[in-house]
Amino acid sequence: MSTSVGRSPGRVNLIGEHTDYNDGLCLPLTIPYATTVTATARDDDRVSARSSGQGEPWSGTLATTGPGQAEGWATYAVGVLWALREAGWELPGVDLEVESTVPMGAGLSSSAALECAVAVAMAGLVDRELTDELRHELVAACRRAESEVAGAPTGGLDQSAVLLSAPGAGLLIDFEDGSTRDVALPWGDAGLTLVVVDTQVSHTLTDGGYGARRADCEAAVEQLGLSSLRRATLADVDRLDDPRLQARARHVVTENGRVADAVTAIEAADWAELGRLMQASHVSLRDDYEVSCPELDVVVATALEAGAVGARMTGGGFGGSAIALVPSERTQAVRRAVDAAFVAEGFAAPRHLDAGPSGPAHLV
Ligand code: GLA
Q: Distance, CA 157 to ligand 1 centroid (Å)?
């Protein structure tokens, strides 16, 4: 029986948050935590999915992997089979075994890691070569699985990051035309390290807050009569009559500018400027987009006080993780300061993780 093993990393987003579904700019990087999926072909049409880190195994058939049929964690895995078949792939029944080191619900794209590891494993199983073109096809299938089967109305940042990044680099993504560019991240040469703090505040993208932000953006676009917020200026933002829609749109417009400025800063090795942009991004997400939470704000403030060059929440928000760019010799001091601040605030202990860049999803 033929077997194929796919592995996909999680990601952090360096900057460019809640811009993907607004045709905007993002700059994510892969992290050194990954999900591994072993796919074993069957000679019937049955499908099973089990995970060492999840509760219930799932079982069904190829025909029951689609919207409204699969349930629970496995929707992210078997939904990919549905999306690939929708795209015309002929797949055998399959047993999927999942193992993962990507923390769940931490805003580090454990869902995309699962989807993309399944997609890569299936490509291997049916002998499709992982060309750039195929990677783009897998991004599309994983996005459909996430939005249509799992019901998370996300914007494509995560799947693009984990499937399209080059080893060791960040990925500038322009969601208006779908183009990407590798961005080297040589902060290590300047003695800096990117660290991740998982607040352990649970984070889900299917419970309404994320969808409500998308709806606000759509309402703003409609009022402005534009094709997307990518086309909006700050003068347009002032034309909106609802202060909430103004704030949402202001975040998106200014965040796109910060991504472009961040790439310029990185290419000039101007780490202080990158830090300032990260900080401004966090403030905008906190005050205008309102997707931060007290734990994320404490990580960011504490990391900066303890010597970080820049810090911000990363990912969708409402909990999840923050990132901080810190002088390498300050890493432990920053982590200890965050731990102490969480104790002082009466928050549950955070979890400290390493950041990347690592490498994209691949066959093992
Ligand atoms: C989540 C979504 C992404 C993106 C970010 C916010 O990670 O899955 O599509 O919208 O939130 O930038």
A: 6
pLDDT at 71: 83
192 in the same domain as 135:
no
Ligand 1 within 6 A of 157 CB?
yes
306 part of a folded domain: yes
Q: Note whether residue 362 is domain-resident.
A: no
Q: For the chain, where are the E strands, in sequence order?
A: 3-15, 25-41, 46-51, 58-61, 94-100, 169-174, 179-184, 192-198, 310-314, 321-327, 351-354, 362-363
> 199 with 166, same domain?
no
Which of 129, 164, 184 is the endpoint of a domain? 184
d(CA 50, ligand 1 centre) in Å = 26
Q: Which amino acid is located at 116 in the chain?
A: C
Cα separation, 169 vs 135, whole angstroms: 17
Full residue range of the structural domain in which residue 317 is found:
187-354
The pTM is what?
0.95
Distance 202 CA to ligand 1 centre (A): 15
- What letter does residue 21 receive in the DSSP assignment? G
Catalytic hit among 95, 158, 216, 288: 158
For ligand 1, atom 9, name the residue with the nearest CA. Answer: 155
Tokens at 110, concatenated? 């454990």
In a domain, 209, yes or no: yes
What pLDDT, in 10s, does the model give residues 280-321?
Answer: 999 999 999 999 999 999 999 999 999 999 999 999 999 999
Is-catalytic flag, 242? Answer: no
Regarding whether 343 and 286 lie in a shared domain, the answer is: yes
What distance, in Å, lies between the first and last C-alpha atoms of the chain? Answer: 17
**335 falls within a domain:** yes
Question: Closest ligand 1 atom, CA of 317?
Answer: 11
Atom of ligand 1 nearest to the CA of 13: 12
Give the domain CATH number at 304. Answer: 3.30.70.890
Number of folded domains that form the chain: 2
Q: How far is the CA of 16 from the centre of ligand 1 (A)?
A: 10
